[in-house]
Amino acid sequence: MSAPASAKSRASGNERVVVSVKRLFAKESADYVVMVATVLFLVIFGLVMVLSSSFVGSALGNDGNFFAIFFSQAVWVLLGLPLMLVLSRLPPMTYKRLAPTAFLLALILQALVFTSLGITSGGNTNWVNIAGLTGQPSELLKAALIVWMAAMLANRIDDISDYRTLMRPLGIGVVLALVMVGLGQDLGTIGVMVMIALGIVFVAGIRITHLAVVVGAVGIAAGLMALLSPSRVSRIMTWFSGCTEEDYLNGCWQIVHSTFALGSGGFWGVGLGNSRAKWSWLPEAETDFIFAIVGEELGLLGTVLVLVSFIVLAVSMARMVRAQPDPFARFVTAGVMVWLIGQALINIAVVLELLPVLGVPLPFMSVGGSALLSSLAAMGVVMAVNRSGAVSVSQYLARSRSRQR
Predict the structure, then answer these.
(1) How far, in Å, CA of 168 to CA of 145, rounded?
(2) Do 183 and 138 meet the contact criterion of CB atoms below 8 Å apart?
(3) 280-329 per-position pLDDT tens digit
(4) Backbone angles phi, psi at 266, to 5 degrees
(5) Chain CA centroid to CA 154, Å
(6) What is the DSSP letter of 360?
(7) Distance CA 121, CA 119 (A)
């Protein structure tokens, strides 16, 4: 093939790809497109920051391989994005049918952390190692919980004012999920799951008095869990009273150096890749505290860019919730929105010392294969239930009834 012919063939192939992408989103709403574009931006930007924040720790822990952590995260990105697109093409009714099975499987996976496959890290037993692959089942449990709750509430939407609707089977399932995560001492994940459950029932139209009772019970349970862990009590008391010289080498090391990193970045930052905190000064720089590295290297501009991205994502998803007539799709979208935006706010609040250290990653950006894969899969489900060409669950049921008649 001649050079001009080869160039023409490549150009034709590129045009086909562009046309396919345009067709994929041509009929979708502006909010839908903005949501997907924001997620893609956060994933790509996060991958860049993972490379920058992890190469020192990667070299120290992987026999001098500066790119081991980055390559691992890149693999998860290459798996997660196609998975999101595939899940976005499935009919919404498929998710509603599979919701109980998926929730049961997620609970079984979560139970594996209490077997010989379980791994304890940072005082939490919330990891499993299966055939050499390490992950957090609780991340999958978050996604499964959202779809299951949405399916349960969509079937009982007319009885939402009755407290018995919240007690069984909904309340039983939520409490079971929280207890299984709580037995692993992962208070941060429990907090996110509680936000998800409260967000979904609020959107469903729960009575305010019932919601107040649930919030009160959750607050009491959270306080008791915190008191049962001496290390957690120490972190909370240090957060209330402030760091002293005696606390510096123990409970305050991480948060103090996070503050140093943010402060040294100034307005413009010290430059991408030039962070000093990642040179073994800031533990978990590429995971829970990647936002501090963004602030140090890219300054206030970088942190504002991240905040604005999550705000744009929240606004686009909230508009989709308001515009969605189908209860199942509305609850799924609301649950995923509360999960991702709420978790992002918790992570950023911890880095800014507005909350005690909870060990919650920044969605789409922090290192973590199971967290990234679950988040992208959840976004794929949101895309599926809000796709313009998809038949909603309520439409499907209406057609089924008309056929039976």
Answers:
(1) 15
(2) no
(3) 888 888 989 999 999 999 999 999 999 999 999 999 999 999 999 999 99
(4) 60, -145
(5) 23
(6) -
(7) 6
**Residue 229 has which token pair?**
């862990």
CA-to-CA distance for 117 and 111, rounded, in angstroms? 10
List, in sequence order, every residue forming a beta bridge with 133; answer none if it has no partner.
130
Tokens 């709580």, located at residue: 182
- Calculated CA dihedral for residues 78, 36, 107, 96, nearest 10 degrees: -120
Residue type (1 letter), 75: V
Query: Which 8-state DSSP code applies to residue 245?
Result: T
Phi, then psi, of 62 in degrees rounded to 5: -135, 45
Residue with tokens 């001496």: 230
- Tell me, what DSSP letter sits at residue 28? S
**Residue reference for tokens 């049921």:** 397
State whether residue 225 is helix, strand or coil: helix
Written as one letter, the residue type at 73 is: Q
Burial environment of residue 155 by CB neighbours within 10 A (0 to 12, 13 to 18, 19 or more): middle
Q: Which residues pair with 121 in a beta bridge?
A: 124
Helix (H/G/I), strand (E/B), else coil: 134: strand
State yes or no: cis peptide before 325, omega within 30 of 0. Answer: no
* Pairing state between β 118-121 and 133-135: unpaired
Per DSSP, 283 falls in state T
Q: Are 92 and 390 in contact (CB under 8 A)?
A: yes
Kindly list the strands in the beta sheet with 133-135, ordered across the sheet, starting from the edge strand earlier in the chain.
118-121, 124-130, 133-135
Tokens of 247: 């606390």
Amino acid at 145: L
* Residues in the chain, total: 405
Rounded to whole angstroms, the Cα distance separating 245 from 261 reads 19
In this structure, of 63-77, 95-109, 279-293, 380-394, the range with the lowest mean pLDDT score is 380-394
User: Taking all residues of the chain, what is their mean pLDDT, rounded to a whole number?
Assistant: 86
Distances (CA, A) of 273 to 118, 276, 286, 294, 367: 35, 9, 12, 10, 17
- Helices then strands, counting H and E runs in the chain, come out as 15, 3
CA contacts within 13 A on the Cβ side of 83 = 15
User: Which of these, 143, 101, 41, 98, lies nearest to 379 by C-alpha position?
Assistant: 143
Instruction: Tell me the HSE value of 263 on the side-chain side, using a 13 A CA sphere.
Output: 7
